[in-house]
Amino acid sequence: MLRGFRLPAGLKGLENMADNLSADTLQLQIGNLEEKIARLERERELGLQMLGMVSDGLMIVDRGGKIAYINAGMEKITGYAKDEMIGGDYADPRWKIRCVSEQGVEDDPVFGWILQAGRPLAEKACVMDLDDGRKKSFSIDAAPLVDPSGSIIAIAALIRDVTEQSRLSEEHQEMKDVYRRLTQYADEAILRVWPDGRISYQNEAAEKILGFSLEDYLSDSSLALRVFHKNFVRDWMRVVGDVSSGKDVLKNIVAECTARDGRTVIMEFTAIAVRDPDGRLLYFELLGRDVTVRRYMEAELAKAQKLESIGLLAGGIAHDFNNILTSVFGSLALAKMDVSPGSSVYERLTAAEEHCVRAKNLTRKLLAYSRGGSPLRRTASIASVLREAVGFTLSGKNIRCAYDLPDDLWAAQIDEGQMHQVVHSLVTNAVEAMPQGGVIEVGAANVSLRDREIPPLAAGNYIRWYVRDHGVGISPDHLKKLFDPYFTTKQMGSIKGMGLGLAICYTIVKSHEGMIFVESTPGEGTTFTVYVPASNGDKQEDKPAPERVAGTAGGHRVLLVDDEQILLDVTGSMLKHLGYDVATATSHEDALNLYGGAMRAGRPFSLIIMDLTMRGDEGGETAIRRWLAAYPGVKALISSGYMNDPVIEEYWKYGFVGAMVKPYSLHELKNTLEKILAGKNN
User: Which CATH number fits domain 298-359+548-682: 3.90.660.20, 3.40.50.2300, 2.40.50.460, 3.40.640.10?
Assistant: First the structure.
């Protein structure tokens, strides 16, 4: 920076001195003075040469505002030669310098301010509008030049061209602004983390996901360790080590985080190392996504695949087991025909039949808890489903149930497995609402609805059942979203759930042409009410089999097709006992030949009973198409131990006239065949 200085004293006074000096002395003084003047001139020329070599611009302006001197650097900056500028006005529009302040560009030049204030200026930001339209940015150091009396005689300014630096600075600021906007409004969480784990920046997404502000992290140095679990801290040390060894990007860093509201949030991060020009690690930029739902869905998919496998296994076991039970059931029924009622043998056979029924129910439950998908409906007792599912769910809990299930409840066409799932979910919610224990209420009633009485339910007969707890209740705001997927008031991502249970319940009930409603009062409890259509308004009863079943076949012929010889023997005996003329076949090909032969002989079969699955043979739905193509009027009944197979549930769609689920009693066999042969639906 230039400083003010005083010019050498003038030569005025030498005349006064000359009168008192001798000629020799005077001559000597004049010689010395000429030598000093010559030296000063050489120093001046040397100084001007040195100033001319300065790359920055140098300009000296006298008090009158005229340019007294510029160097080569100033020529280069302005594009004007010395001859054009020296002697010209410093305020000439061609090279006028204007100051920059917080208010913007000012017209008042630097020189006017120095003349008024009498003080130097350091690193003043200025601009110059050149004649060719260019705008130059400068940093100016300027100082007044004063004479021995202290009066300002000129102003010297060192002008540094910072146009490129300003452009780069503006671009840098623009990039910073762009980065800030991109990070601030990005959907992914972005955090700046130092190697020691301190968080110095986060965007809105990070705050929204986890609930903590940047001020929270800055004011509490240990907060990050509490937010990010120990496994992430361990992984973080690995990240720092990997980056230290030269890696700049590390992907798929999974962290379990505890949000402000206590939720467990699973985050998946990509860590990007930011280094200084020498390659030393400064900090990390973490780009993270909330993958809680995705991880849960992956877990649910794996669970679903596992359950599907279990369901397939259970179905196979149930089929084979039911085939065995069918032969046992039939053998017991036939054996009872040969002994007197009231005898000890008869009582033991009856007890064995009861055990077979229990075994049949066991396979049904096994399948009910292992399958999902579209409902496969059959007539069932809602009361039985409620008692079984509630008992199963409350097992080992400090909750008891008060039932209100009247004896005259209508039957319903339901998928028992899916309805078990609904009851289980609702009861589980009730249990969680009463952590201290208590009593839940489960009840049901028959209702007949008029059209639009309870939208969107159609007019008709329904069974209305409910699950009521006396727990914490649900707020009105939460009630509106209770059946939305992934909405939950519990700890999301934990064992408490993901907000899918009630959504699944809603879907299941809707698929049954029913509806589910919820009422709740905070602090008092919650009631879930479910409507499912009744089955023709009939009461569901478990009718005991008669002591003896008389045959009423009336000469009908039946063709029995099964790949299990013992089933052919036992079921054939049951049919013969009922008075039917029976023929058997172990394959569909043999059965077709028998059927065709009987037609040609004028002794056609009234009915075919075929197994759904035959080892080494085509399935029942394929076989029936061949039968109908060859004999359009054929009547075929499908039978299987796969109680949840769609062919069994909707047999008419495949061309069958009826269906029976193994095992079946002699009484069930008799009633089913009589209905079919009488032209009634099974």
Answer: 3.40.50.2300
pLDDT class of 52 with cuts at 50, 70, 90: low
Please state the rounded mean pLDDT for residues 137-153.
Answer: 84
Bridge partners of 127, per DSSP, are 98, 137
What's phi and psi for 647, nearest 5 deg? -65, -35
Query: What is the CA 405 to chain-centroid distance, rounded?
Result: 41
Beta bridge partners of 446: 463
Q: Which of 380, 371, 444 is nearest to 414 (CA)?
A: 380
CA-CA-CA-CA torsion sign (164, 169, 171, 172): positive
**The pair of three-digit structure tokens given for residue 419, joined into one six-digit string:** 């309805």
What span, in angstroms and rounded, lies between the C-alpha atoms of 353 and 92?
119
**Angstrom distances, CA of residue 482 to CA of 265, 393, 475, 489, 517:** 21, 21, 10, 9, 10
Q: Which of 440, 444, 359 is nearest to 393 (CA)?
A: 440
Cα–Cα nearest to 512, from 446, 457, 443, 454: 457
189-193 and 152-161 as β-strands: parallel, antiparallel, unpaired? unpaired
Q: Which residues pair with 274 in a beta bridge?
A: 283
- Reported as a pLDDT band with limits 50, 70 and 90, residue 486 is low
Q: What is the mean pLDDT of the chain?
A: 79
571-620: pLDDT as tens digits: 888 899 888 999 999 988 899 999 999 999 989 999 999 988 877 667 78
User: How many angstroms separate the CA atoms of 295 and 556, rounded?
Assistant: 61
**With respect to CATH, is domain 186-290 assigned 3.10.129.10?**
no
* E-assigned strand segments in 387-470: 399-404, 410-414, 438-449, 460-469
Asked whether 426 and 457 are in contact (CB, 8 A), the reply is no
Domain range annotation of the chain: 14-167, 186-290, 298-359+548-682, 369-539
DSSP β-bridge partners for residue 442: 403, 467
